[in-house]
Amino acid sequence: MVRNLREKSQLSMRELAKRGGISQPFLSQIERGVSAPSMITTYRLAAALGVAPGDLLPTPISDQITIVRADEGIRIPVADRPDAAVGRALHLRPNSPLEVIEYHIEPGQHISEWFESQGVTGVYVISGNLEIELPGLDRIRLGPRDFLSHPATLRDRWHLPDNHPTHVLLVLSHSI
Q1: Which one-letter DSSP state was computed for residue 47?
Q2: What is the DSSP letter of 53?
Q3: Sheet holding 157-159, edge to edge
Q4: Residues paired with 147 in a beta bridge
Q5: SS3 of 77, please?
Q6: CA of 40: how far to CAs of 22, 45, 53, 172, in Å?
Q7: Residue 32: which pLDDT band, with cuts at 50, 70 and 90?
Q8: Helix (H, G, I), strand (E, B) or coil at 120
Q9: What average pLDDT does the segment 81-101 reach?
Q10: What does CATH list as the number for 2-60?
Q11: Per the confidence metrics, is the pTM higher than 0.70?
Q12: What percentage of the chain's residues is helix, strand, coil (to nearest 5)?
């Protein structure tokens, strides 16, 4: 944590150690997790970095874990239409490079919106069939347990090729 904040502040180890009133070797040990700073050192380093002291403490592991039960998750429609398929966000957090959305698509639901983003798009078909349209290519048909990934800057849109429900996981990976 200290190293990331120091680098974002464009400070050398020597400069941060000086501003924090500690030796550079001790700062190196703190950054590598070999040593833990005292409370006073934490406050000095926080002041030198222009952050709150709590920003230097490790995030509790429980804050890093997401559990979404089968009946939970934020509902996200594909489009602003009453007949749009509705997805369930399994992982959608601020400042996270990962998004995971589950779709149960019924015949007749609207899913044919062009979509593009940054990063990488992954589509995994759990059950049913899905066709993915990418500009300049024939539609790609995916069946159960098939996976497709592509740069998210490449527009895509989905189609149900037959009159059967389809269960899909959409995974988006963004750089931060």
Answers
A1: H
A2: G
A3: 140-142, 130-133, 157-159
A4: 124
A5: strand
A6: 11, 9, 10, 41
A7: confident
A8: strand
A9: 87
A10: 1.10.260.40
A11: no
A12: 25, 30, 45
